Amino acid sequence: MSVLQEIYQWSITLKPWLSDAVRRLLRKQILDEQDYDDLYAMLRSANGLPDPKKRMPQRLAASDLPSATGQATFTVLHSMLDLKHVNRIADKQCLKFVPKGLTVVYGDNGSGKSGYSRVLKRACRARDQEEKVLPNAHLPPAQQGVPEALFEVEIAGTKTTLRWAHDQDAPEQLSAISVFDSRCARAYLDDEQDVAFMPYGLDIVQDLGNTVLPGLTERLEAEKKLCVVDRAAFSDLQGTTAVGKLIATLGAKTDKRQVEAMATLTEPEHKRRGELDVALRAENPRAKAQTMRRIVQRLKTVIAKVDAATTLVGEPAVLRLRVIDEAAEAASAAESIAAREFRECETLLPGTGGQEWQQLFMAARQFSLVAYPDKAFPVIDPSARCPLCQQSLADGGPRLQRFDEFLKNETAKNAEQKRRDREQAKGELRRQTIAFGVDATLLEELAGYDVAIGASLQAFERLLQERQKCIVGACDTHQWNSLPAMTGEPRNALQQRTDAICQQADALEKAADDQTRETLQREIDELNARAKLALRKQAVLDAIDKLGVEAALKVCQDDLRTRPISDKSKELTQKAVTQALRDALNREFVALGVSHLKTKLTERTGSGKTYHKLTLDLPKSIKLREVLSEGELRSIAIASFLAEISLSGHTGGLVFDDPVSSLDHFRRAKVAQRLADEAEHRQVIVFTHDTVFLGELRDCVEKKALTSSVCHLTWASAEHAGQCVEGLPWHHQPYKDRIDKLEKVQRSLGRAWGAYPNAEQIAAMCQAYSHFRATLERVIQDLVFNGVIQRYRDYVRVDNLRQVVGFTQAEYEEVARLYKTACDVTEAHDRSSAKNAPVPDPSQLDGDITALKALIEAIKLRRPK
Length: 865
Prior knowledge:
With 865 residues, the protein is of the alpha/beta class. It has 27 helices and 14 strands.
């Protein structure tokens, strides 16, 4: 099991946030402030401290691991194609790779090389996952899709296609491809001031224990300082009361609901506190209690009067009078109807039968009893006279008798009775006196308790008096809907004040007794303590929160212990750092031209175990970057990568992205040789922009007769880069390929050339002759001198001198002629405007190309076999 696989299995046992820290360290070498903020928030959340941003840990997953090693079967890349939304790379491009041997992808800066290599890093789960693959930033956001690509692969002899997308886990099969990452092995300064080498993966555990956990501990210690609670600030709340006991035991587990309840005094409790305060402060409580009792009796009398007056003019009383009034009105209406019917019997004076007429007739009845004391009314004898006009009744006797019968009718009698009932009820109400009997003395005494009560009593008294008048008037006007409303009734407030004074009197009487006084003192102490707590409630609640955070931080502190991490690091080091690794590293150092760097395996014993450390054999207390160049550090990184690959039994493909950055010519050649060695038995893919390194790789391919392919990247248009073109760029092509390209250009020009070529055609012809001249120079380098000296090399190929041949005079003159022709046409020279010489036409270019080919064949014929 590899170191990374061991770390993955170990991470399963870790808490989620700690596993997330391992995942982040795997993706980037150095965590930034945002990483520390996230991890600290998740650590707190795991121990009961909520995170406002609700960040959730993401455990290390198998899909996060870089290249798997030691697989029984391995993955061979055949091509990477159909890239979409990857930088500005053109559509429908395809990078092809040789299954076994060396594939070189050359690209200048800005050609799209980084886009392809970033996709490979992501898809193959390289150590460096921090560099994101971005879509085309020149497109509107709505058109920027998720970067994706297809990979044609062969696994155990079976070909298949795998899809990679930036927002999904990379295919597991592609993890068998190892990608060189300058951070896959690194040197660092350990606690013992020894410059040590750490195999790929071990630095994750080391950084977790030596950097990440201490960094989180710093944040924790800073927060703990903010959680210190000054208990002395609550000294005024301490004591024997329930509040005091709560403050004495204040802690993270203190129930905040209990604090809320204690700090909330009800209205009765507020009143009780005031009563107790008065009672306990009084100098002669018993005498004061007697005074209060007298006030209570007077108030009870007032309450009784208020109740009586309220009853007198209250709604029930009004309703009763209204019913009487309405009954009288209804009876009178019935009486009026009867009178109308009475008048209709004969012609009578208007108003006959009415109340005025009835009064007149009743007077006549009374007078008849005086005039005719012995006779019943009405007297209708012939000699009798009318009691009113004292004229002879003659034929009026029957009319008088009918009048009498009308008055004796029930309707008239009922109406009269109802009117008498109304007058009686109205008179009774009018005779009632509404007065509460609140004198100035009582008002002054009440003001000592509640100023508003006296005023409300007087106002209510005036209201009831006014209401009495309106009710009496309504008996005459019969308008009952405009009576003053009974508002501001002080009865309840008066009763509450009476009860309160009674309670105060009770408290005063109890306060006069020493034993009872102690009980009251304890009661008011509790109430006073709660009142103080109410003023400090928020501070107490904040203190509980702080203590809660402090308690949780202590648990967090336990999670930040570095001992378990250190133990795991030692365990993994014991397995990974071996003599075999030391030997492999030394072999790689020699192969890469840094043989002056040596490693040594040291031992130390701790807790009964032997621990190994692989160090560079350099003076103590020296940092690598102080004594080693950038090139040497890069060579160490490549050597470390290859050493671990060689020991792992890994036979999968290797990808190198610009491996020779910062290397000089000598070490470039060493790296090229080393990669060519690997390409003899596995798939090796190299991305480079270094032309010298490209030449070195070509030499190694030629020497070893390796299966290889070369392509270069160029701009497909002004908008899109990354076009894949098989073969080398023009400046690196052999003369045969160049001649072939020149012939294609000649044929293209010949098809469109007219008698008067345009500026674009002239420029194309000048460019063609510029390439012709460069081809001629390459013929001299590669054919005439047989590659003995090449411009990118820092050595001479003496072994190639055997096939070098001299020029004949005719051959030299032909070379000079062709070279001069090209020089006269190429745009590298400022052509004479006065001369205005025409450029050669396509037929002349064809002739010059034919002459060059003939020259090449002549030289080859004279070369020794």
